[in-house]
Amino acid sequence: MSETDFPIPPPTFEFLVFSLKRQAEMLLGLVMLGEEKTMQPDLPSARHMIDLLAMLAEKTKGNLSLEEKLAIDNSLTELRFRFVQMSGQAASASNAAGGDGAAK
Questions:
Q1: What is the sign of the dihedral through the CA atoms of 84, 85, 86 and 90?
Q2: 35 assigned to some structural domain
Q3: Does 19 fall in a domain?
Q4: What is the pTM of this model?
Q5: Could you give the CA distance from residue 99 to residue 4 in angstroms, rounded to a whole number?
Q6: Which domain holds residue 61?
Q7: Which of 4, 5, 80, 91 is the most buried (most CB within 10 A)?
Q8: HSE of 30, CA atoms in CB hemisphere, 13 A
Q9: Phi and psi, residue 28, nearest 5°
Q10: Environment class of 98 (CB within 10 Å of its CB; exposed 0-12, middle 13-18, buried 19+)
């Protein structure tokens, strides 16, 4: 390992949840990728990532520590809220664009 390499975190359930959550946030366009630059939202892919995390929660139900359960439950709550927000913004933008096009 060179001095510039970052250490690889241990493979924990919390890290898996964090990784899936971060991917969903990126797909929702919520993560800064550079100076004031974010990805364009990809709502179908974000929904898939949220559904994947929900499936993981369902399959591990009853087998998680309190901290693991809170991590996945809180992540799902936040991501679902953000998804609804971004879907509403996308619908508003689409309606505004459609309204402008009809007026011309």
A1: positive
A2: no
A3: no
A4: 0.79
A5: 52
A6: 43-85
A7: 80
A8: 18
A9: -85, -5
A10: exposed
6 domain residue, yes or no = no
10 Å Cβ neighbour count for 88?
Answer: 10
Q: Are 51 and 43 in contact (CB under 8 A)?
A: no
Query: In 3D, which of 12, 18, 14 has the Cα closest to residue 69?
Result: 14
According to DSSP, the residues that pair with 32 across neighbouring strands are 38
Q: Give the pLDDT of the chain (104 residues) as one tens digit per residue.
A: 566 688 888 999 999 999 999 999 999 988 877 776 677 889 999 999 999 999 999 999 999 999 999 999 999 999 999 999 999 888 887 788 775 544 44
Residue with tokens 């946030």: 25
CA–CA gap between residue 87 and residue 68 (Å, rounded): 28
Number of domains in the chain: 1
